[in-house]
Every structure is written in structure tokens, then in C-alpha cells.
């Protein structure tokens, strides 16, 4: 370990360690790039790939993100962008959960889908994409539908959960599950030009309030579908919330729902 | 009595964004929703003066009713 620290300090440019040297350290000391990344951050150095994060994140905060585990439930419209942004941000462990595979009607908006991935399991595509853009991130792919039965195991040791599913039943189950497990939940939902975001801490029951008039079935997404841009907007809001929850900074969207109307470019805040 | 009705997202199509409307005293939220032909199964948030209400809530003169459709996609 001391040798590794010496190697890293020798190769550091200021306090930055290039990807090339991170790879070289992994090879030389027979470690994974994730283990080297942990050592870099523990030495108060910064992987160079995160240098544009530094204006807003300290090295300690980057290390905190790397030590965090986030579960993303749903790897479709919202989930594809959420996974991409979490991995680039530097969240160290991601659990991707989805039981589905890619179909042609996903291609207009789902970041992980392409003609080449049609028919592919979504969580497999998620793991491949993350390995490609940030190999230091550890991904657990779970091709299952989350429920009260398997949720306790799937969400164990998770610091934050992202609700990127496509139905109200699962959203309400997820809120109850996260409340039981004492895990903050970042909720996002979309339909056509419209979407909303809210962050739920255990016991706040925000989704039960948002969907209090729900009588079953789908929302207006059933008629409108979803375009390319709405998932990107709402997913980005969700990742900003996850970042704040993990670091304990800023003012998360607690007990309020932020709604976006991209057709008229209106934002409304709903108290909950 | 006069009630300010604010509609959001798809509920605006063929109706209005915001309108001050005349109703008999004692009119409920539910009656206004039915009068505007808003689909019950697609109701999201319903608030009177920024407070969440049940559909049987009676409106009072000068209050503002806000109605959002259900958004649940991902």
C-alpha cells in the first residue's frame, strides 16, 4: 500500500492522477481500477477525469461520492440518463434494476438503446455503458422487477434510491420500501412535455401525497408518450438531488414537488 | 360565487390556462371537474389556495382551484 501511495505521488501532476497512470498502477500492483481510485482519493489526490468537478466538489466530497452506493430502479427513459450522469459524476457503486429488454419504441429517447442493442437486456446494456465511460464504477445488474419481496436484499447498504420506473404501483411500493429501510428516494416522472421531481426522506410519504387521487392505471403518458428531451431534463434534476443527498449539501426538494411544463416553459412548485 | 380555476399541462387543451368562473354557492371541486369534463382517472394534484383537497370539498367565493393531470411515466 505504501508502495502504491509512493507511485501515485510520483506520477501526480499537481494533485491530479491521469487515467493512464491509474491504469498503470492497477497493472503494477495487481489491483482493480476501482481499488486504485479509492487509493488515489484516500491520498487526497484526484483522478484527472474529475478535474472539472473540482470547482464545485472538494476531493473529500469526490471521495464521498466514490464510497456511495446508489440504486437506480428502471433503466429506460429516465434511468438511462440517470445511470450515465451518476457514473460520470463518480458515484462508486451503482445497482441497476430492470426486468425489461430494449424494443424499437425505446429508440426515440432511451439513452442506452440503439439499433444494435434491440432485444438486449436493459441492465446488461447499462453495465456495458458504465464500464465504457467510467471503469472505476462498480455495477451490480439485476434483471428483476423490484417488489416488497426482493427489495430488502436489492437495496441493502444503498445510500440513495432513484425512482425511474414507469408505473404508480411500483413507485408507491418503492416509497414504502425505502421508508422501511431508511433510505432517501429521489422520484421523477414524465409524460410528453411534462414532468416532475421530488425527494423523499424516510417517513415523509411524499409519493402517497402526489398520487393521493390515483385510482389505478397510467397517467397522461399513456396518450402523450415521451420525447427525447423530457427524460433528460427530469433525470438531470434527479441526479442533482442524488448528489446533494449523498453529500448533505444544498436544499433538496423535500416536501415539495417541482413540476415542469416544457411546452409553455413553466415551472410550478407544489407544497406537499 | 366566483372561483379562479387554474389548469395545468394537457388539461389546458381545448379549455383554458386560468379563468375566473361563476358557480352556485356550495359547488364542490368534483362538480367543477365534471363540468370541465376532466377525466377522473387522470387526476393528479388538486389544490384549493395551494392546499391539497378531496374532491368533495366545497368551494368558497374568491378561492383558487388548481388541477394537474397525473404524470407517471419513466
Descriptive account of the structure:
The complex is a heterodimer of chains A (about 270) and B (about 70). In chain A, about 40% of the residues lie in helices and about 20% in strands. Chain A folds into 2 domains: about 1-55; about 70-270, Rossmann fold (3-Layer(aba) Sandwich). In chain A, the strands form 2 sheets. In chain A, strands 5-4-3-6-7-8-9-10 form an 8-stranded mixed beta sheet, sandwiched between helices. Chain A is an alpha/beta fold. In chain A, a hairpin with a 2-residue loop joins strand 7 (about 185-190) and strand 8 (about 195-200). Chain B has about 70 residues and is mostly beta strands. Chain B has one domain (about 1-70): Roll (Ubiquitin-like (UB roll)). Chain B is built from 1 helix and 5 strands. Chain B has a 5-stranded mixed beta sheet with strand order 2-1-5-3-4, with no helix packed on it. Chain B starts with a strand and ends in a 5-residue tail after the last strand. At the A-B interface, helix 5, strand 7, strand 8, helix 10 and strand 9 of A face strand 3 of B.
Short description, anyone?
Chain A has 272 residues and is an alpha/beta fold.
Tell me the number of structural domains of chain B. Answer: 1
Identify low-pLDDT runs of chain A.
none
Q: Give the name of the CATH architecture of chain B.
A: Roll
The total of helices of chain B stands at 1
Query: Structural class per helix/strand content of chain A?
Result: alpha/beta
Which structural traits does this protein have?
heterodimer, A: 272 residues, alpha/beta, Rossmann fold, 2 domains, 8-stranded mixed β-sheet, 10 strands, B: 74 residues, mainly beta, Ubiquitin-like (UB roll), 5-stranded mixed β-sheet, globular
Topology, please?
The complex is a heterodimer of chains A (272) and B (74).
Chain A: H1 2-11, E1 16-17, H2 19-28, H3 33-42, E2 46-47, H4 59-66, E3 69-73, H5 77-89, E4 93-97, H6 122-133, E5 138-142, H7 148-154, E6 160-163, H8 168-181, E7 185-191, E8 194-200, H9 206-210, H10 221-224, H11 229-247, E9 256-261, E10 266-271
Parallel strand pairs in A: 1-2, 3-4, 3-6, 4-5, 6-7
Antiparallel strand pairs in A: 7-8, 8-9, 9-10
Helix pairs in contact in A: 2-3, 3-4, 5-6, 5-11
Chain B: E1 2-7, E2 18-22, H1 29-35, E3 43-48, E4 51-52, E5 64-69
Parallel strand pairs in B: 1-5
Antiparallel strand pairs in B: 1-2, 3-4, 3-5
Amino acid at each position: 500500500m505504501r508502495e502504491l501511495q509512493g507511485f501515485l505521488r510520483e506520477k501526480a501532476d499537481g494533485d491530479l492522477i491521469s487515467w493512464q497512470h491509474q491504469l498503470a498502477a492497477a497493472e503494477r500492483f495487481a489491483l482493480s481500477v476501482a481499488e486504485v481510485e479509492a487509493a488515489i482519493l484516500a491520498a487526497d489526490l484526484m483522478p484527472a477525469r474529475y478535474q472539472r468537478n473540482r470547482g464545485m466538489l472538494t476531493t473529500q466530497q469526490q471521495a464521498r461520492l466514490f464510497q456511495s452506493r446508489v440504486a437506480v430502479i428502471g433503466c429506460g427513459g429516465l434511468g438511462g440518463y440517470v445511470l450515465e450522469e451518476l457514473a460520470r459524476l463518480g458515484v462508486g457503486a451503482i445497482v441497476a434494476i430492470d426486468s425489461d429488454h430494449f424494443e424499437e419504441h425505446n429508440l426515440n429517447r432511451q439513452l442506452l438503446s440503439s439499433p444494435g442493442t434491440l432485444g438486449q437486456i436493459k441492465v446488461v446494456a447499462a453495465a456495458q455503458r458504465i464500464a465504457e465511460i467510467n471503469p472505476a464504477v462498480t455495477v451490480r445488474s439485476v434483471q428483476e422487477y423490484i417488489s416488497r419481496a426482493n427489495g430488502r436484499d436489492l437495496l441493502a447498504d444503498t445510500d440513495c434510491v432513484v425512482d425511474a420506473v414507469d408505473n404508480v404501483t411500483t413507485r408507491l411500493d418503492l416509497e414504502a420500501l425505502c421508508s422501511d429501510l431508511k433510505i432517501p428516494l429521489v422520484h421523477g416522472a414524465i409524460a410528453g412535455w411534462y414532468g416532475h421531481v421530488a425527494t423523499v426522506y424516510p417517513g415523509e410519504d411524499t409519493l402517497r401525497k402526489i398520487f393521493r387521487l390515483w385510482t389505478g392505471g397510467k397517467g397522461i403518458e399513456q396518450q402523450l408518450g415521451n420525447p427525447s428531451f423530457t427524460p433528460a431534463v427530469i433525470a438531470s434534476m434527479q441526479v442533482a438531488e442524488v448528489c446533494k443527498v449523498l453529500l448533505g449539501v444544498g436544499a433538496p426538494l423535500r416536501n415539495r414537488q417541482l413540476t415542469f411544463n416544457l411546452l409553455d416553459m413553466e415551472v410550478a412548485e407544489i407544497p406537499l | 360565487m366566483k372561483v379562479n380555476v387554474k389548469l395545468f399541462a394537457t388539461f389546458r387543451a381545448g379549455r383554458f390556462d386560468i379563468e375566473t368562473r361563476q358557480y352556485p354557492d356550495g359547488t364542490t371541486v368534483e362538480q367543477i371537474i365534471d363540468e370541465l369534463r376532466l377525466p377522473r382517472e387522470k387526476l393528479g394534484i388538486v389544490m384549493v389556495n395551494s392546499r391539497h383537497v378531496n374532491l368533495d370539498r366545497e368551494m368558497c367565493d374568491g378561492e383558487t382551484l388548481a388541477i394537474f393531470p397525473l404524470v407517471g411515466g419513466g
